[in-house]
Every structure is written in C-alpha cells, then in structure tokens.
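worker-03 picked up job from queue 'complexes'. Input manifest follows; two sequence lines, order preserved.
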Amino acid sequence: MSAASHGGDGGERRDFLVITAGAFVGVGAVGLVWPFVDQMNPSADVLALSSTEVDISGIEPGQSVTISWRGKPVFVRRRTAAEIEAALAVDVDDLPDPESDDARHKEGKAEWLVVLGICTHLGCVPLGYAGDYDGWFCPCHGSHYDTSGRIRKGPAPANLEVPEYAFLTDTQIKIG
Amino acid sequence: MSFQTDNKLIKWFDDRLPLVSVMHHTFVQHPYPRNLNVAYQFGSILGVMLTLQIVTGIVLAMHYTAHTSMAFDSVEHIMRDVNYGWLLRYMHANGASMFFIAVYLHMFRGLYYGSYKAPREMIWMIGVVILLVMMATGFMGYVLPWGQMSFWGATVITNLFSALPVVGDPIVTWLWGGFAVDNPTLNRFFSLHYLLPFVIFGLVFLHLVALHQKGSTNPLGIEIKGPADYISFHPYFTVKDFFGFAAFGVIFAVFVFWFPNYLGHPDNYIPADPLVTPAHIVPEWYFLPFYAILRSVPDKLMGVLAMFAAIGVLFILPWLDRSRVRSAAFRPQYKWFFWIFALDCIVLGYAGSQPAEGNMLIVSRIATIYYFVHFIFLMPVLGWFERPKPLPTSISEAVLAGKASTSAGENA
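worker-03 finished. Artifact:
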C-alpha cells in the first residue's frame, strides 16, 4: 500500500478501526488479567474469620496474653500503674512515630493495651516485658517498643498497630 | 561446518526437524578457546544441578502435601517412610545449596575475567535474571517444609514489600492471600516453586543462545583470531566438564551423606508456630550477604532498596566498568580490588549470620558501603587510571609460548 492511498478515502477509516480495535483489545486484556491477579487476594472464607471475642477477666495487672486473630497474634496487656506512668512520661514529639498514650487505649481503660503482636519492621512477633523500655523487644532485627507499644529504638518505622476492637462488657472484648 | 551423515533415516528426519544438526553444532562442533581453565567449569555444572533439582523436585512433589496441617508431617513421611525419600530430599535440599555455590563461583569467574563486557552484555544480564529467579525459587522451596524457619522466613521476606509507600500493605496481603502467612501462602508458593525451575530452564536456553552468538571468553580475555586458538567442544570440553561433574559430585555427596543438615537450620525441624518467633531468624546461607545489606541500613524502605540495588547494580556492571581490558590477568590494580570485593562478600555473609547489633552492625555497614563503592566508584575509575599490562597477540601464542616445537594450527 502506498502512502498516497493511505491519505485517500480508506485511510482515516482504517486508522479509526485500528485505534478502536486496539483500545478494545487493551480493555479486554486488562479485564481478563484481573481475575488471575485478584484470585490471590484473601478469599471469602478468610475474610469471614475477621473477629474474635476474648474474655479478659483472668488477666492480672502486669500480665499479658497473646491471642490469635486472623492468624496473627494480638497482645492484650493489663498494664500496671508504673507502666502507664512510664508511657505518659514521654514527650510525644520526640518519638519516631508520635502518638500519645491516650490515643492508644480506649477511653477510661488505660489499664488495657491491645496491640497487634507484629513488629512493624518485618513482621516478627516481639517478646513482651523486654527491651530497653520494658515494653516489647523484637529479636529479629532489634526494635524496642515501650509500654504503650510505641517504637522507640531500632529499624521498625511505626508503633505496634492497635487493631479495631471494642469492650462488649468490662471483661469481654471483641477484636475486629 | 555443517552436520554430515550417511544415515538416510537421520537425514530424512534432520531435513524436516533439524534437531540432530543443532545438537551437533551446539554440543560437538562449537569452537571454544583452547585455554579455558578450571574457573570455566561451573556453567556445565549448573546445567547438571538444574536438571537434578527438577528431577528430585518432581518426585518429591509426588509425596509432599501443600497444606499447613500436613506439610510438616508429609516431609517427615518422605524422610521416614518413602523408599529412598531421605536421599531424594537431602539431594534436593543440599542440591539447592550446591546450586548457589556453583552460581556464585560462576559469577566471580565472570567478574574476574570480565566476561560481562561487550559484546557479551546480554549473556551477563540474562544470568542476573536467572540469579533472581533462582533466589525466588530457593526462598519458596525453603517455605514448603513448614517449619519455624520456613514460616518466619516467609513472613520476614514477604514483609519486605510492606516497605513500599501506599501500595506496600495491599501487595503483602495479596502475596499472602490473607492477613498473615497461612495456607493460601503455602499453596501458592508450592505452585510457583514447581513453575519457576522451568522458567529458569527457558532462561538458561537464552543464556546459551547468547553465549553461542558471541562465543565464550577465556582467561586471557582476547577474542579467538584463528583456528589455532580454539578446539571443538567434543571431545575436549566434554571430557573436561565430566571431570568437573565428578569433582563437584564428590563434594555434593559428602554433604548429602555425611552433613545433610549442616547447611540447614535446626529450627526448621520445629513445626511452624504463627505465635512464636524463633529467637534468631537467619535465612539460608546463600542469602546472607544480601540480608546483611538489608539490616545494615537503619531505615526500613532504604534497607529494602539497598538490598535490591545490590543485585540491580549487577545489571549495569557492563557499563560501569570502563576498562578496555577484559581479563584481570592484565589488570594489576583491578586484580587486587577483585579479591578485596570477594572478601567483602564473605564478610557480608558472616555479618548476615550474626545478630545485628554492636560491632557486627558496624562491620556490616562498612562492608555494605564497600560493596557499592566497588561497583559505582572503583569500576569506572579504575578504567581511567589503571595501566594494563600488554596483551598477547593471540591465544595460541600465549598458550604455546616456550613450546616452539608445537605447530600452530594442529587443532584446526
């Protein structure tokens, strides 16, 4: 086909057809690829297991229990007065991930700290009552958390995550 | 130089599907420099190791169950009940380590003799892609026995992606198929662990096509100039390669039969527990230098980027190296820096195996900086300042120096 005929009456129509067909193939290809990508996301049964209820009546001050929620550990820690004091004594602006202790527990429930037991560095489970701040210490890469679960020292970029939870009664919490 | 035969059947077949002549050209006739030394063994050894991993892997998959409640027990079933299961599994597990030993030696050979330089950049870059796919395969394979190291190794490595801003967390959830490493993760790792070796096989094919396009380098780093410089692959290099297989096989057998768990980690004989992290997590030895680089950077995202950059820098090495001389044999300064770099990699490997604190953290930081200084600064700068030694005029002249009675062209 010569360049001259391309400019003739068939040319524009052909260009239109090529561009439209190409666009439809593109959209179709993305539509076809998506199921193959999305199948790797959490399935319905995994999503269904999204909440856990815990009885906390047996936990004494200075004690922490680990429960499993969505396959991840959650620390429920009943803090002593000294631990709460230590968490409040810090200047929030000096923290790597500034967050006040009040924002990390339910109102009027300063005793109870509920955090995901997953180091925000690379996902190990930190050890309780350890580290320079007596909160948690992650043995994998040396991150130190304080008694509010806030990162103080080490490679982790953020505080231990506080999951969505609610007090059903004074002795019953629902996580998720 | 084409394939000749009088056999009518083979002629008929080869005329329609040139399999025989291609094989003949590749594995019999292809000219190789006559001076290839022991450092050039590892390519063929890697071919054997890949085949061995695929064969042992396929039979192990006949007995393994990819489910969190059964994976650990099915591996013990292989070890105790399956006929020769212990041998097959130890061959496969140690085979992975031997594979990496061979690939690292193969790469150091390339670094020493400048194999990556023009016109062989594609061979080298395909090789780096093979390394990346090998690492993914090795990592996923280590997850399958579902021991403590499997689980926590998978957790730590997949969490690397959470360092990426915005898309990080959705990517990690997508990789896991859940909110933590769990059954969906194990299943997909098994599927991919089975797939990737065949991807490697395809990449190896491309690696060889690129190699045969430009021919092998050699310890002198000069090109083949005439018939006196090369010899055919068969029988000269087939016999040399088979000797290499035997020697490498002896070392492999020592590990399989006497120290089958030396390169592994005892914690992986504890079933995976999502609620307890082992006190000291270490990856398999072949990842340790990269793990040391990851941990030596105090920032999470930068650490992850540095680790990937440590491999990424290899891609651009053919352009970072400004020297016109290929072989370190004629580069008096580079030769030293090569060995310092090799030592640096070993230091990184050791640092990666130790807890990241105190002096060891300082050591790994210095070694990490040196790793990048070597590639980004020394490689370009040496090319400008170094005075290379004079190159021989031809391979045969250098090889036959002092052996005047041998006539050139005897191997034509």
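worker-03 released lock.
The longest helix of chain A spans residues 11-38.
The longest strand of chain A covers residues 63-69.
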